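Whether sequence alone determines local backbone shape is best considered at the level of individual chains. The sequence in question and its structure tokens are set out directly beneath this paragraph.

***
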Amino acid sequence: METDFINAKKLIEQARKILLSMHERMDGDDGGSLLAFTHFLESQDKQVTAVIKYGVPEALKFLPGSGKIQDSVPQPNNYDLLITFGCSNKERSGLDEIVSLDIPSINIDHHPDNTFFGKVNLVDKTKSSVAELVYDFFNFCQWPITQDIAACLLTGIITDTGSFMHANTQSSTLMAAADLMHKGARTNKITRHTFKNKKPQVLKAWARAMENSRFDPSSRIISAAITEEDLLDLGELPKSAFEGFVETLNTMPEARFALFIRQDGAVIKGSLRSDTHKDVDVSKIARLFGGGGHKLAAGFSLNGKISRKLSGELQIS
């Protein structure tokens, strides 16, 4: 990726007013990568605006610089470079102002369904995470990685590898993580905020989803769902309430893959997970519903409603 790295570096050096964004609903990987860039660009006296639809979830507010993130684009015609993280296309940002922007862009991603929409595309599907790719880019450019930048990037690596338990963890991932720790990032702080912060109402929501789970022994699929009625009964939940739930479903050894669907307004959100030894490409399933993702981790959104029959069984309409 040397040529792409060189071209991206040139665009950044030439730009003065830079807009950073990612897919809607911030996660640790793309959000951490965005914040790492924010810290560096501000140190270079760039005017930086970081925007993520729906803002920062509670679990990620510990990240240095997270308070600077906005949830809408101010002055949409006031930038000369756009950098996106984890977006297969501009529409994934969920922000019309970004979709309509006609300025040079750098597209940073590791998803195999990326559409290479940027003027420069830093896309490498072999990387464990966007954060690992950003780490490589910083090292190529010989940009300093401060303790704050290290914390943001290590958060991305840890969350996207499931604390190094997922199959996307490689030797390069562990070496990057070790270097980021050497630079001051702390794994215990990151895992405490991202994996060990379940509040009682979230645990109750997970319990409800587990109650709704079903295992089909013939197809060896384990699935679970949260309906609109469930959400009303559970009360107000953080937007990140079900993060990690589908991974927990996927720990059932008899299941070839796990599916979790939940109601989100008039939209059904679906998440799919599998493992290397199970030999199921869940991204192919996600694409049937207009979604996408990785071979072992994918998702989709579709218009519809999850409802419960009189028999108690769930159906989609």
In short: The longest strand covers residues 257-264. The chain has two domains: 2-194, 200-316.
